[in-house]
Amino acid sequence: MSYAIEISHFSYSRTGNDVMVTFSTSPADRYVRSDVVVSRLIAGETLVVPVRGGLGDLASIYTFNPAGTTIWAALDRPKDLDELTRLLEQEYEVSGSDARADVLLFLNEMRAAGLVAVLGGDGNETAAPETSQNRVGG
């Protein structure tokens, strides 16, 4: 089985530069799908549409390949970084460091898009503190 995290973001109303945002993580953090998205599995890929104002935001559609789909499926219930890392290690037989790096990439992108929520050690959703921003694209 091939392994590589691929996330495609189709945005039909782009203006300005893309911004990559990274967030700090805590070992107590647990991640879960946001409740403001609709997702469907089609031909082994997951399509995710954010819901804004009660309607699907068809101007922003995300697709995940099988590795991204594996993480997304696991996020139907809160999971911590270690659980998600072990899942990729077992499913795709990759090193722990590669799996962790890919999970962090996935979580950062999904948090920045508002598709994944973070639950602190107390089980309540936490604000996502920014630690850095890097301009990507032009």
Give a structural overview:
There is one protein chain. This protein has 138 residues and is an alpha+beta fold. The protein has one domain: Outer Surface Protein A, domain 3 (Alpha-Beta Complex), CATH 3.90.930. It is 28% helix and 36% strand. It contains 3 helices and 10 strands, in the order βββββββαβααββ. Strands 1, 4, 5, 6 and 7 form a 5-stranded antiparallel beta sheet that branches. β4 and β5 form a beta hairpin. The chain is globular. The N and C termini lie far apart (35 Å).
Task: Kindly report how far apart the N and C termini lie.
Answer: 35 Å
Number of strand elements: 10
Give the SSE string: EEEEEEEHEHHEE
CATH topology: Outer Surface Protein A, domain 3
**For the CA atoms, what is the radius of gyration?**
15 Å
Question: How many distinct folded domains?
Answer: 1
Structural class: alpha+beta
Q: Count the helices. How many? A: 3
The coarse silhouette is: globular
Uncertain spans: 9-21, 128-138
What is the share of helical residues?
A: 25-40%
CATH class categorisation = Alpha Beta
Q: Give the biggest sheet.
A: 5 strands, antiparallel
Question: How large is the share of residues in beta strands?
Answer: 35-45%
CATH architecture: Alpha-Beta Complex
Mean pLDDT across residues = 76
Give the SSE layout.
Elements: E1 7-11, E2 18-23, E3 30-33, E4 37-42, E5 45-52, E6 55-56, E7 60-64, H1 66-74, E8 79-80, H2 81-92, H3 96-113, E9 116-119, E10 130-136
Antiparallel strand pairs: 1-7, 2-10, 3-8, 3-9, 4-5, 5-6, 5-7
Helix pairs in contact: 1-2, 2-3
Defining key terms:
single chain, about 140 residues, alpha+beta, Outer Surface Protein A, domain 3, globular
